[in-house]
Design goal:
mainly beta, seven-stranded mixed β-sheet, elongated
């Protein structure tokens, strides 16, 4: 099993910044794609950004130019730097990784709340 530990959410004013982290502690597995998703109240979960093991990135239009996804393969950690935050960025942010542990599976973090006040 792959367990994910998220941190970095909180309350911030519009225009502010936050950095989210997601770590998969342990060994015996290999991680390919890592990503961040978010779910606002009453809405479906949506993609924010993904990054492959070769550092190719993909962003939702809403994240382009404001958010940066990065990863540290040695630490099995993915980051999301969020700048110029807007109230509409308020959501629970979830980390997701695709990892190989006997087979490929997707694993989700517990979620971290991000609240942007106007």
């Amino acid at each position: 099993q792959v367990h994910l530990v998220e941190s970095g959410g909180g309350l911030v004013q519009a225009g502010g910044s936050l950095r989210l982290s997601c770590t998969a502690p342990g060994s015996g597995f290999s991680i390919s794609v890592m990503g961040w998703y978010r779910q606002a109240p009453g809405k479906q979960r949506e993609l924010v950004a993904t990054i492959t093991s070769s550092y190719d990135t993909n962003y939702a239009d809403s994240a382009k130019g404001r958010f940066t996804i990065s990863r540290d393969n040695a630490k099995n950690t993915v980051y999301l730097q969020m700048n110029s935050l807007k109230p509409e960025d308020t959501a629970v942010y979830y980390c997701k990784v695709r990892a190989y542990y006997r087979r490929y599976d997707d694993y989700w973090g517990q979620g971290t709340q991000v609240t942007v006040s106007s």
